[in-house]
Amino acid sequence: MREGLEAGLKSKGCTIKMLPSFVYHTPDGTERGKYLALDLGGTNFRAMLVRFKRQKYRLYHKIYTIPLEIMQGTGEELFDHLAQCVCDFLDYMGLKKVRLPAGFTFSFPCQQSGIDTGTLVSWTKGFKATDCVGEDVVSMLREAIKRRNEFDLDIVALVNDTVGTMMSCAYEDPKCEVGMIAGTGSNLCYMEELKNIEKLEQSNGILKTNEQTSEGEESEAAVKSDLKMCVNTEWGGLGDDRCLEDIITPYDAEVDIHSVNPGKQRFEKLTSGMYLGEIVRQVLLDLTRRGLLFKGHVTETLKTPGIFETKYLSQIESDRLALLQVRSILQQLGLRGTCDDSIIVKEVCGAVSRRAAQMCGAGLAAVVDKIREDRGLERLSTTVGVDGALYKLHPHFSQVLKETVGVMAPHCDVTFLPSEEGSGKGAALIAAVVRQKQEI
Ligand code: ADP
Ligand code: MG
Known about the structure:
A hairpin with a 3-residue loop joins strand 2 (33-40) and strand 3 (44-53). With 440 residues, the protein is an alpha/beta fold. The two termini are 39 Å apart. It is 42% helix and 20% strand. It folds into 2 domains: 1-16 and 174-419, Hexokinase, domain 1 (3-Layer(aba) Sandwich), CATH 3.40.367.20; 22-159, Nucleotidyltransferase, domain 5 (2-Layer Sandwich). The relative contact order is 0.16. The protein has a 6-stranded mixed sheet with strand order 1-11-10-9-12-13, sandwiched between helices. Bound molecules: adenosine-5'-diphosphate (ADP) and magnesium ion. The site of adenosine-5'-diphosphate has 16 residues, from helix 10, helix 11 and helix 14. Adenosine-5'-diphosphate is lined by residues 41-43, 183-185, 273-274, 310-311, 314, 388-390, 393-394.
C-alpha cells in the first residue's frame, strides 16, 4: 500500500490513482449559509439541503433509489434521472426558484482538473452506464438540468465521498485529515503536502487557482511548501497489477471473475460491503461441494449470486445472537442446516470480515505512518473520519480495524470519528469553503 501510494503521487496511470481533489482546506467553523448537496454513492441518490449557522448545521434530505436499468443504461438516462430527483426535492422544499450553490458528491474515481470539473475514470461498485467514462460528470449533470429546464443550480464542487467524510468530521474535530469509507466500496483520502503530489507539476499551473495570495512575491516553491491538498487515493485499485496474489484466494478469484469489472478493484473486492457476502457464499459453496456443510447438498439458493448479502454477516456475527438464531437466518435464506452447520457458517463470516478489517487497517497504517514520516514526527496524533454501513453496522469491523492500525502503525495515535452525514454535510462544507474563498 505504501509503495502504491508513493507511485500514484508521482505519475498517472498507477493502480492507486491518487486523484487530486482541489480541496486545500478543512473547514474552520466560519462556514455560513444554505447549500444543496447531491450524493450519488453506491446504492441510492440523496438530495439534501444543508444550512450552516454559528457552528451548527441543519440538514433536510430525501432518498431516491437508482433502478438497476438506470445504473446500467445510458449516461444521459442516468443524469436525466438525477435531474428529475433534484427537481422533485426542490419542489418538496419549495426552493425551485432559488439558484442555490451545490456540492455534487460523486463517489467514483474522477480525474479532476479543478474543484468543479472531473472526468470519470471508470465505474466501480456495479455501475456501468454507457457514455460516461472520459466525460466530465459535472457537465453531464448541468446539461441534464438544462434539458429539464425547470430549475437552475450553481454546481460549485465535485466531491468524492471520502473527501466529504473528512470535511464533515473536520468540522467537529480540526485534527481530522483522513477520510475513509467502508460501505458498498472501500476508499480513503487524506491531506497531502502539495509538494509531494509530483504529477501535478507536469499539468497546468494549479497554484494559479484561488490559492495565490496577495503576497505574490513569495516564490512558488515557498507557497507550495506549506500548502496541502486532499488526495482521493482510490486505494481499492491496489492489486490490479496482481501484487496481492499472495493474499487472494480461489474464492476471491471467483467473485472477481463474475463481477462487472474483472481484474479491477482487487483490494476493494477483499474489503467492501458489495463483495464480502459473495466471498462467504463462495466459501460455503466449496465446503458444501466437499461434503463438509449442509450434508453436501448444493441447493439452487446457494448457487444464486448475491443471495448472501453483507448485512447477514453483521447479523450472524453479532455476539448477542444464539446459534439457533443463526440457524433461523440461514433458513430464511433457504439454507437448511444443523447447529454444527451454523457454527461453521459463523466461522466463515468471521474470517471474511476479519480479513477485510485487517486489510483496511493495514492500508490505513500505511497512510498515517506516511503522514508521520513526512512531518518528521516521532509520534503522530490524528483523527480519521469514517463512513459506510460496513464500518458503522458490522459488530466487529471497527474494533479489528482499530487494533490492526495499532499494531501496524505503533507510532501513531489514531482516533476514529464516525461521520455524521459525510456526503451531505461534507459536500455542503466544500461548497461553502470554495464560495468563501471566491468571495475573498
Ligand atoms: P454507500 O457505500 O453505497 O454510499 P452505505 O455506506 O450505506 O452506502 O453502504 C451500503 C453497503 O453496505 C451495502 O451495499 C452493503 O454491502 C453493506 N451493508 C448494508 N447493511 C450492512 C450491515 N448491516 N452490515 C454490514 N454491511 C452492510
Ligand atoms: Mg455513501
